[in-house]
Amino acid sequence: MRENFDVVVIGGGTTGTGVIRDLVLRGFKNSLLLERDDLAAGTSGGCHSALHGGSRYVVSDIQTARECLQENQVYRKIVPQVVDPTDAIWVAKTDEQMEFAQKWMKNADDIGLPYEIISVEEATSEEPLLTKDIRFALRTIDTGFDPFRLCIAQAYDAKKKGAQIRTHHEVIGALMDGKRVVGLRVLDKTENNIYEVYAKLIINAAGPWCSQITEMAGFAIPMKPNKGSTGIYSMRPTKTLIGILRTPADGDGLVSQGFQNTALLGTSSVDVDDPDDADPGMDEIKIMEDSVAEIIPDLREARMLRFCTGVRPLYTTGEETGRNISRGMFLLDHEEMEGVSGMITITGGKYATARLMAEVAVDMACEKLVGKVLPCTSDKELIYGATTKEEAEKEAQEIHEKYHIPRYAAHKFTARYGEFAKTILEKYPDQAYVIDDAVQMIGSEVCYSFKEEDVENFKDLRRRTRIGMGQEQGTFSIYKAGGIAQQALDMTPAEAEECVLGYVQERWKGIYFAAQYGDQLPLSELMQEMYVGMGSYDVLSLE
Length: 543
What we know:
By secondary structure, this protein is an alpha+beta fold. It has three domains: 3-43 and 148-222 and 327-370, FAD/NAD(P)-binding domain; 85-143 and 225-311, D-Amino Acid Oxidase, subunit A, domain 2 (D-Amino Acid Oxidase, Chain A, domain 2), CATH 3.30.9; 428-534, no CATH class. Helices cover 38% and strands 22% of the residues. The chain has helices at residues 14-25, 62-78, 95-111, 120-126, 147-160, 210-216, 282-293, 334-337, 354-370, 389-403, 407-417, 421-427, 444-452, 458-465, 478-488, 493-517, 521-534, and strands at 3-10, 31-35, 50-51, 88-92, 116-118, 136-140, 143-144, 164-167, 169-177, 180-188, 193-204, 223-233, 241-244, 253-257, 262-266, 270-271, 304-315, 329-333, 343-348, 434-436, 441-442. The strands form four sheets. Strands 4, 5, 6, 12, 13, 14, 15, 16 and 17 form a nine-stranded mixed beta sheet that branches. It is globular. The two termini are 39 Å apart.
């Protein structure tokens, strides 16, 4: 049976999920999102987790700064449960940084970027690990956020309103009618089945893989994939995001995630040929840690859990490389540029500007499909699960009292799911207990994720629940999830075992690099002993 859609969106990152949500809000409910892996499995999941408010770019790229400022405030309003309820402190220590701070404030004033000058004493009182040698400090609206739950919230907001979301469905070809893209050939990787979908319009939001998609239609676009490595600490050296007042460079920020009790050191900028081949660099991590340690000396004593990378979808028609390429968004009309109709591409940009990127892409889609731009409400309507900090705290207390879940775990639970937290426990009360002490994940989340959030394996489960993203990296928690999956989800022992081992193997890749750094060597040895030694499983390789 032929499947026909108004629009098919390629890419399950923050831009693609933002596009599918915007489409259904404007009435295009017969829309489909295709993602070759899982939601937030690519660039979005490997980002620095900084919800920029414009501070980082206000001197070097003022248009991007304007966009980040606008969208930071939008996300705080429409999906508050995924935004860390803190701000940021930016500091200057050297003469050069002091000079930069003056340019920064002038540009911030020009675009209305809010900031507050605070004394060195106040900054170091709030953040005791900051060196007393800093000379200047600003408070801004930049903060941390949960990139996984934001992607998932956008996708399921769209799904609730009528769109289809298909993860683990990879686009492998374009269906052409002359110079028009009329559909796509798709591989269902779960069922190993190839099928076709047809659409009036294809929106390519595949991030650094955008050119691979357009090449299926007969033309390439000048993408410059750029790797950013991130180091993840097992503690929060600071309460807020800390940044260095200077032109964007490697290691100029530490994102502290209040809901998750981790901190992310970032980020580097290295051009790569293949976005699927981008391992974190040991030298990159060392350079970044040395840089941030200039303002937080004790950072060198913190334990690094793992390394990860995200590949930026940079676009340029020139010869620029790395940090010289704009972080601005690019909307490409291929009918106008290459003479190929039926497909547009939205690329570039920042995680913080993804909703705005979706808006401009859907504006163009409206013009092509109905001849005019329909009103956009994606910046006003609350997203799936939206709840304020105060509402989440009240709900957490009720959960604690009813289900006897520790308050700390209840708070983290409501931070992940917002207004749906109580519903999850009502549906799956038998699993209402903590199975991951590090991230305070609750067993009911395993059932909910598999049954209602399109989870196929435990790697997908991690993105929904953060299982194994804390100090123990899944060593002890993941086999508990396997037990729940077998008992409550009717998995066979072999299926549950496959989920557990696939997860352990995936975690090992990031732990391996951190173990070489020295911090994770004891845990890596313990994981080896448990799963390879005692369990005799052939896992924990880098293949």
